[in-house]
Amino acid sequence: MPDIISVSDLVEVYADGTKAVDGISFKVNEGEFFGFLGPNGAGKSTTIKILTTLLRKTSGSVSVAGLDLDKEAKEIRKIIGVQSQETSVDPELTGRENIILLGHLQQMKGKELEERVDKLLEVVGLKDAADKRAGRYSGGMKKRLDLASTLVHKPKVLFLDEPTTGLDPQSRATVWDYLEELNKKDGITIFLTTQYLEEADRLCQRLCIIDAGKIVAEGSPVGLKKDIGADAITITVQDKKSAGDKVATKAAAKELLSKIPAVIKTVDTEEGLTIYVKNGGLFVPELVRAFDKTDIELVSINISTPSLDDVFLKHTGKRIRTEELVKEVTTGRFGSRRR
Ligand SMILES: Nc1ncnc2c1ncn2[C@@H]1O[C@H](COP(=O)(O)OP(=O)(O)O)[C@@H](O)[C@H]1O
Ligand SMILES: [Mg+2]
């Protein structure tokens, strides 16, 4: 398959010296559903802004559909659709008018545009609300309207920056279904960024995991999880006798685990310790016996097959921890999270 996006040694240093993208290279195949998964501040939006010609790169090379970003930015803009992280909906216009406006900007008019707008309104489930002012839409409706607007000119490549962040689960599922349809039925290549593990897992055929401006892992969700080659067991511990020093108890537990041959790796997490072993089920009795002889009590044991979060943890020593981000988005509504 030919690649439709090709990025090599891309670097972005902002005016204040922040190195938001630190030498990344990757390719996206034509027709692929490709993902960029990473926590807040990883460099996802910066990358997407560069690829969509909205931000000038510091160095590196980028081509989209065989067009060079430095020389053919205008041509690139004609064949891509972009949904940025902030919605660009005009609250004074109706949903329908918002899409028509975007169509005009793409030199579309007349019957062709009218039919296209009707179809898009239906597809994103806004047919009934089409003639209401967009300012009165819910957050989920605005996101869906934004998505419809980016699709008006039938882009070859669609760039989506966290299209479902802040959406309720039901709206999220609707958007997921629609994106899959666009990719499968219409053959549109999709480049999506997300901080949601389950979103990357469900939608993306291939993905890059990005952290602090660097790509830390790349592959299919299944392949990446398989590469871990182990189950993850998360334990919490406490001192049997006293409340004790939590940090010291954890450190002692880690020391004990390091002496057990079956343990591949132990990582400190907020909840406790995550232990990687070949076979989680078989290991639990051994784990219990090992702690029996000590002053450390096993408070909880939780076995799981690897998730993309474990992939992230393995490569960065940190968790993406989606739950907290959801909380952050919710509180952000009151204005504290704007950058
Ligand atoms: N205009 C800017 N000037 C300086 N630093 C920025 C700017 N925009 C983003 N950053 C910083 O660059 C890093 C990457 O940001 P961003 O690409 O928005 O990450 P993500 O989209 O993955 O959350 C962060 O540390 C962020 O604070
Ligand atoms: Mg972002």
Describe the structure.
Mean pLDDT is 89; it is low at 323-339. The radius of gyration is 23 Å and the shape is elongated. α8 (221-228) packs across α11 (308-316). With 339 residues, it is an alpha/beta fold. Strands 6-7-8-3-9-10 form a six-stranded mixed beta sheet, with helices on both faces. A four-stranded antiparallel beta sheet has the order 2-1-4-5, with helices on one face. Strands 12-13-11-14 form a four-stranded antiparallel beta sheet, sandwiched between helices. It has helices at 44-51, 73-79, 95-105, 110-123, 139-150, 169-185, 197-203, 221-228, 246-258, 280-292, 308-316, 322-336; strands at 3-13, 19-29, 33-37, 59-64, 67-68, 80-83, 157-161, 189-194, 206-211, 214-219, 231-239, 263-268, 273-277, 296-304. The protein is built from twelve helices and 14 strands. The protein has two domains: 3-225, Rossmann fold (3-Layer(aba) Sandwich); 230-305, Lrp/AsnC effector binding domain/regulation of amino acid metabolism (RAM) domain (Alpha-Beta Plaits, 2-Layer Sandwich), CATH 3.30.70.920. It binds adenosine-5'-diphosphate and magnesium ion.
